Predict the 3D structure of the following.
Amino acid sequence: MNASGDGGLAPAPRAGVRTATLLCAAAALVVGVVPASAQTRAAPDPEPVVVVDCFSQPQVRPEEYLLACGDGNNRLVRLSWDTWGPRKATATGTDLVNDCNPYCAAGRFRAHPVMVTLAGPKPWPGHHDIQRFTTIRLVYTETAPSPVPKDVTYKLVY
């Protein structure tokens, strides 16, 4: 409390004001010598390449991806993405495929371990500055669903 008893702060001694002024001046000089390149902020990362789903929604590193948009009888699940870059994306997961035996409504979904590669980035029509992957490669690490080959590439049309 100061001598006036009003609870305010006591005035700072002159030496403190002089020190504060010198510190501010020194800081201003330091800022003036920092190169301009160090003062600018980095440009934001460009939009990542996306994979477009059956509902025309862009996805990045989806945990699931529906391959059979018409009937839902083929879906990639438990996708674990190792890479997601500007040229390709790679993952491991499971391809759940309906065996349609004796017919699809009565069939069972069978699990097939798979390695997934998205590639072929191209501009996404109607979406300014967004690239989308246009192919998906599936390599089955055990058995492939019949009659699909063990290594197959599909064109992504969405």
Summary: The helical segments are 14-33, 36-39.
